[in-house]
Amino acid sequence: MRAYVTGGGIGFIGGHVVRVLRERGIDVRDEYVDLLDGPELERSMRGCDTLVHVAALYSYDRRDAAALARVNIGGTRTVLAAAARAGVRRIVHTSSAGTCGPVAGRPATEEDAPPA
Fold this sequence. Notes:
By secondary structure, this protein is an alpha/beta fold. It has one domain: Rossmann fold (3-Layer(aba) Sandwich). 36% of the residues lie in helices and 13% in strands. The protein has three helices and four strands; from the N terminus they run βαβαβαβ. It has a four-stranded parallel sheet, with helices on both faces. Helix 2 packs across helix 3 (65-86).
């Protein structure tokens, strides 16, 4: 199995994913590529049968909805299209509760705001 991990494996979740996959003997490609660069993503995914999409834009103090949509929605579309063109057969897409922040006593939802 050969997997491509978005975000270059440099983020909190991506770094852990890359480490665990390698510990399990999986060949990991984790070069950083901008999520909006379809041709470069496709090149990076060629020869991979699995995509692990964990990269995203988030910030507790950044409220730029257009940038968040461009990267998180448009970027995910670009990543998925590049994976299809590269012949990737299996996709794992995940997110993080870190975008909502911790909520005491219950699971966080989209209605929760990040910490001040």
